[in-house]
Specification:
Blueprint: H1 3-11, E1 15-19, H2 26-32, H3 42-59, E2 68-73, H4 75-79, E3 81-82, E4 85-86, H5 87-95, E5 98-102, E6 114-115, H6 123-132, E7 137-144, H7 149-167, E8 172-179, H8 186-201, E9 210-215, E10 232-238, H9 244-252, E11 258-261, H10 263-266, H11 275-293
Parallel strand pairs: 1-2, 1-11, 2-5, 5-7, 7-8, 8-9, 9-10, 10-11
Antiparallel strand pairs: 3-4, 6-7
Helix pairs in contact: 2-3, 7-8, 9-11
């Protein structure tokens, strides 16, 4: 375990860049970036283009560890290079940004008002490769849509079960049970979820820590009991479909919670922009999300 990474992850001022769109969400991400599906054919070309987009973001002079404390990578991004260095090494050695990898394979069908993760074949191999590449932690996402105690329990139980497997490889898991922000039951789901997560922390061995990535809550500071908890390294927020300005406004009111935004980070960036335009847009975005994360 890299203790410098742990210190930055635990107490660094800034936010986490989520650069982990994968198969299903990649065409949409490229489309928002100004590259239509007609511009490429096949997965290989698509992934080359999205790696070029991520490389442009990561190598930009505004993308630095003093504001972007960590970055979540798609597995394929972890396995690729940036400027001749493996992406995790480039992030930490050049940018002082902590590398994290997304490990889930997407969502199962809706059951009991929630979507647990699909099975993750080869997870131990992925975790071993990630650790060997100097990756600090992992991220895995489930979704809760209804205030159904059985569904919430299924999501949280699976997250902690996989979390223990991840901890056994010396990596720190980001547990991400997203609450659908459009759910009419959102506030009630959050009550069930907070209780389930607090109970789940009892299973984490003393001296070990997990991270939580949670939807921005309906009640400000609703998750404050996790901030500073000895078994929680960091509590981060997902934007969950809110536009960036709104997400940042809500985040400012949730003290100690930091951002981990994906779509809200790349909002406004375009393949057609000149380098100067790209840097100006990305820099303004980073500054906005950073300022909302340090409240």
């Amino acid at each position: 375990m890299n203790m410098d990474m742990r210190t930055q992850m635990g107490s660094g001022q800034g936010f986490i860049a989520a650069l982990d769109q994968s198969g299903g969400s990649t065409p949409k991400a490229l489309g928002l970036y100004g590259i239509p599906e007609s511009a490429y054919s096949g997965e290989e070309q698509m992934y080359d283009l999205v790696h070029a987009m991520r490389t442009r973001i990561i190598t930009d002079p505004t993308f630095v560890g003093s504001k972007v404390i960590a970055a979540i990578l798609f597995e394929q991004t972890m396995d690729r290079d940036i400027e001749g260095k493996p992406t995790p090494s480039y992030l930490w050695d050049v940018k002082h940004v902590v590398p994290i990898v997304k490990v889930d394979k997407g969502l199962a069908d809706l059951t009991d008002g929630a979507q647990v993760m699909k099975a993750i074949p080869g997870l131990d191999d992925l975790l071993a490769r990630a650790a060997a590449k100097g990756v600090f932690g992992t991220k895995m996402r489930s979704v809760i849509k209804e205030a159904n105690a059985a569904g919430v329990a299924a999501v949280v139980d699976q997250q902690f079960e996989l979390g223990h497997q991840i901890l056994s490889h010396g990596l720190v898991p980001i547990i991400e049970p997203e609450v659908d922000i459009t759910s009419p039951d959102k506030a009630r789901i959050e009550e069930l979820l907070r209780d389930a997560l607090m109970a789940g922390l009892d299973s984490v061995p003393d001296g070990q820590q997990v991270m939580f990535k949670l939807s921005l809550p309906s009640v400000n500071n609703f998750y404050s009991s996790f901030i500073g908890h000895p078994k929680v390294l960091r509590v981060v927020a997902l934007s969950g479909g809110y536009a960036r300005d709104e997400a940042c406004d809500i985040l400012r009111a949730n003290h100690g919670m930091i951002a981990s935004f994906s779509r809200a980070l790349s909002e406004g960036l375009s393949a057609q922009q000149s380098d100067a335009e790209f840097t100006a847009t990305l820099g303004a975005t980073i500054d906005e999300i950073y300022s909302a994360s340090i409240t």
